[in-house]
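Human: Respectfully, please carefully check these tokens:
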Amino acid sequence: MPLRSSTTLAFGIVLALYGASEARAQDADTAAAKAAATTDLGQVVVTGSRIKRSEVEGAEPVLTISAQQIQQEGFLTVYDVLSTLNQQGSVEADTKYGSHTPNASPVSLRDLGPGRTLLLVNGHRVADYPQPYAGESNFANYANIPSAAVERIEILTGGASAIYGSDAVAGVINVILKQGYEGNQVRLRGGTATAGGRDVVDLSWVGGRSGDKWNLTYALQWTRRDPLSVGERPKMDDQDDESYSNWTAQARKYGFNPFTGLSLVDAGNNTRLAPPSGTCARFGGQFVDAQRLSYDYNSDTVRNLGGYCGMAHDYADWLAASGGDSGSAYLYGTFDFDNGVQAWSTLSTTKSVGYWTYDPPYVYLGPFHDTGSDRDLYAIRQLTRFESGGWKNLANTTRELSWDLSAGLKGRLADRFDWEVAVGRARYTVDEYVRTVDTQKATAYFLGPQLGSTADGTPIYDLDESRWYQPLTGAQYNDLAVKAHNRADSWVNQASANITGELLQGWAGPIKFAAVGEVAKQGYRLSPDPCANTCYPLDVVDYGGGERLRYSGGIEFDVPLLSTLNASLAARHDRYGDYRAYGSDLGAAIGTQRDTTWSAGLEWRPLSTLLLRGSVATSFRAPDMHYVLGEPSSTQQTVIDQYRCIQKGYYLTGGCSAENSDVFYLMQVNRRGTPDLESEHGRSVTAGFVWDIAEGLSLTADYYRIRLQDMIKDLNRDEVLSAEAGCRTGLTTAGGVWVNPGGAEYCARILSRVARDAAGRVTGIEQGPINIAQMHVSGVDASLKYRLNTARWGNFSFALDYNNLIGYHEQTYRTDDDKNLRDQKVRSKLRGSVHWENGGPLDLTLYAKRFGSTQTVNWGTCTRFDDGYQPSPSDACRVTDSGNRHFGESTTRYFGRVGPALYWNLTAGYRIAPKMKVNLYINNVLDTVGYDNKERYYGYQFYNTTLYDAIGREVAMEYVLDF
């Protein structure tokens, strides 16, 4: 929705609701809270400042979500509700092939990346998720926060490093857990998806007890949410489920070749050795008899390469939505001493197990010479859930344990200052068990002992067909499909002290201040399976580990300038250093990062019903530990030497390609942490207003802009070699002029990453992270709230939150085009709810979430001809093959969009007794699913995972007991 149209709509809603508020004055209840801009909170701390204040709204916008709101809108977990925030960007889907963190749930405010949003629990930092996001950087996991213990969630959407330090670039999410709870409440919830699968059970107990000087709050929660396999969604479990517009010429000619289930392939001519009759039927319906067909488009001929067992449903055993079990416990206790000092302590822990898979384990042997058939063969076989005994035995498993223990003292000094000291330790452990085939065991079981080698070195075996063509027993499956064990740990020890209060009396009121000092030591360790990619293959293997020390100090002031004008100022200094790498001397080479940040804000209340506000803040993000402490890893790869290609002039005679063998050769590619990384630096600006239009009706709107520089980007081997060639020659491999993005210093760093011998051949490449990229985002957040109390129809609460993305710019190099990438994102988001109650036993909540349209996954691809042939975008969608029937013809590029997507949740509660209640939850009422919104030119998963998923409508019942 364009910003102009959205603004018109917002003002229309305001005027309509204002008229309604006037019309209802005759029968409205007279009791109403004061306006949002001046609501009296007593004296509390709100996220974004350590200074206590008595008003909800301040210089920076803060969104608050209560535990009651989470339940009324139908959400079960903390991440469920945070993922619906208008400010949430796209993150790596748990169903993505090759994900490094399939059991984690990251948040990326403003779409700046998960590591640039700071997570606090009760105002304190938590341990990082041990495994790196996308194999590169650290982040926080929002899936291990017990929702039963949550009191409220406060979200500050802007830079806040001057208050909280590193990572508070896009914003801060402060999850505040229950304290001072009285009584007990048990909740039991059970539900399922109406399309099948995805059963959910949640049991929680929250309670609290207190005495004259003490209070104890506790919470226990157990949740089971079954994973959803693709096989439970028949509209997306096969290749032919993709949109027909994306079918290839081969598929339109005779359909799709099923994925290989069981096959013997002749290494010489690529034909298949057909399995004996009845073989495919032995595998519990998961294999079907198939013929491998090959289509030559230019001659329009089909060649049959032979029979094999194909998968009955190609993607049936892949993951559609992750799931598992989790149990959590929470304790918070206080004790009041006679001198006014209060001691407090809290412990929270979560233990979980998750199940996931992208491609179940398979056997791949060869090439080998088979004495029985007297051929060189490849043997390929997919292991099945029929053999394993169920999908969970086929899937991978992640077991996690996290705990956080902290304690402190707080009191009041000279009846003017509130102080607090605290210490804490948090730890997070992930044990990942990945199903993969032990190659040596599979070789021994199916091929037996090696019988020698052929003249060209191919090993000779006698394939045991009685085993190859028979399903495995459960015991045999567990013996061959081993569980590779990757372990990851992270921890943080921290201590802090802060003081806040009225410093002195100013000309317009008391000047308040807060000061804080912090020290923290954090570490992590990645311990992949020692047999990874030696005894058996693994797609994702990460190495690294170490620790570092942080010292921080900050101060902030709240200064009344006039009776209606208030200023806030803050500054902070952070030092990260004393690095130590586990198992290497890398830590000694790592420098110290020192960053000073500041912020300033203004609040002007020209009317008692109107707040005008604005803020400017700088922010930073210290380099991720994995970026600087990642352990060296190396592989032999065949890569194009771009410098030699330009030097020899090949770019003038057909370009740099694999055809030029003297520049396309095997070289050592290494990756390790970069010790001299610097912090990323940001600046954010906000400006907006809060207007109490009428009793119960308020409108909030804020403009935001966040700019981030010196972003850390992981350079791959080709980027390193391309930059080296440019630094040495000033040319690109296409013959154009190369533009230096970072001057002499940049080239010096690049040249140090490439090692060459005396003959000029590359002997080693160091790929890895450097400070190089930049980005900035801007947009508008708006919120409308309306409360209508009537004597006849009950009480209504309306809430509407809107976001419009104005600009999204991202440059890897400063010389890149600074294009607005807004159209590649979800440009607008809307989130709202209506809650009704009449003081009786029934209450209802209707919640809605709208995602605006976004660019299709394969945006810019060439459309297909009617027969399915697709030309290449690199040839401007023009067919250049003279043997092709469409030679000289062109198609157009596809610049489609997908969406918008609209979701509705309905919650109904009925109090059956003073202390007993039942709730009905219907989430995704209209059953909006991805497989009903497939993109025209996109293969598996067929739909845009930013807008859709495969779960569909979910229905649940809940029983609530207070005692």
In short: The chain is about 10% helix and 45% strand.
